[in-house]
Structure formats: structure tokens, C-alpha cells
């Protein structure tokens, strides 16, 4: 299975792993078409895997932790569909939107790990 790259990516994890050879920094930079400082960064890192992008802890910028807890408890208790739950919760949580409710439910579903 291939690794998906964004438009500016010039290397893959495989290339970074192969770069740990005894080859000089200049030669490796020339071979992979990157600058020598990039090769030095690769070699100074402990792993060759890509770093996680985004926040370390996913949280809502709209809802507080207490509000999210209310939403999760309500959802588990009533088992209502998203739109019905939104209509029931909006009088209590004024800034609640359908998208923020959906993101909260997705984030807090039991048995799923956050990426």
C-alpha cells in the first residue's frame, strides 16, 4: 500500500529510513533532491515516521467539557437521532449547532480511539 503525500512532500518514510546510512550529508541531499539541513534533521530524529499533525488533545472550541459531558449523557440515555437530539438540547446549550453536536458525538463514541 502506497503512502499518501501532500503536494509539497519530497520524501517518504522509506527514504528517510534509508537515509540513516553512512553516506555523507551532501551526497544524501543530492540523491534525494533536498537541502543538507533537511538531511541533518532526519538524522537527528529518533524515528523516521511522520509526526502527528494537529492538536495533541482534540477538543471543542465551541463547547466546554461540561457541555460535552451533558451531550454524551443525554445521547446515551435517549438514543435519539442527531437532529432530534439537537432540537432537545439547543434550549439548554445555546451555542450548540448541528456540526458541533456531530463532532462531539463522533469524538466521544465509546470504543473508538482518537487519531
How are the SSEs placed, and which strands pair?
Layout: H1 13-18, H2 25-32, H3 36-44, H4 65-78, H5 82-89, H6 98-107
What does this structure look like?
- The protein is 48% helix and 0% strand.
- The protein is mainly α and 115 residues long.
- Among the domains are: 13-44; 65-107.
- The mean pLDDT is 81.
Estimated structural class: mainly alpha
- What general form does the structure show? rod-shaped
Number of strands: 0
Instruction: Indicate the proportion of strand residues.
Output: under 5%
Give a brief outline of the structure:
The chain is mainly α.
List keywords for this structure.
mainly alpha; 115 residues; single chain; rod-shaped
Amino acid at each position: 500500500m502506497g503512502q499518501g503525500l501532500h503536494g509539497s512532500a519530497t520524501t517518504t518514510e522509506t527514504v528517510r529510513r534509508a537515509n540513516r546510512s553512512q553516506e555523507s550529508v551532501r551526497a544524501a541531499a543530492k540523491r534525494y533532491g533536498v537541502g543538507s539541513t533537511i538531511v541533518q534533521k532526519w538524522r537527528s530524529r529518533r524515528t523516521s515516521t511522520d509526526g502527528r499533525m494537529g492538536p495533541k488533545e482534540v477538543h471543542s472550541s465551541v463547547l466546554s467539557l461540561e457541555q460535552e459531558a451533558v451531550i454524551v449523557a443525554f445521547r446515551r440515555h435517549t438514543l435519539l437521532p442527531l437532529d432530534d437530539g439537537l432540537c432537545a438540547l439547543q434550549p439548554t446549550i445555546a451555542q450548540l449547532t448541528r456540526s458541533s453536536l456531530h463532532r462531539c458525538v463522533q469524538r466521544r463514541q465509546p470504543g473508538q480511539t482518537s487519531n
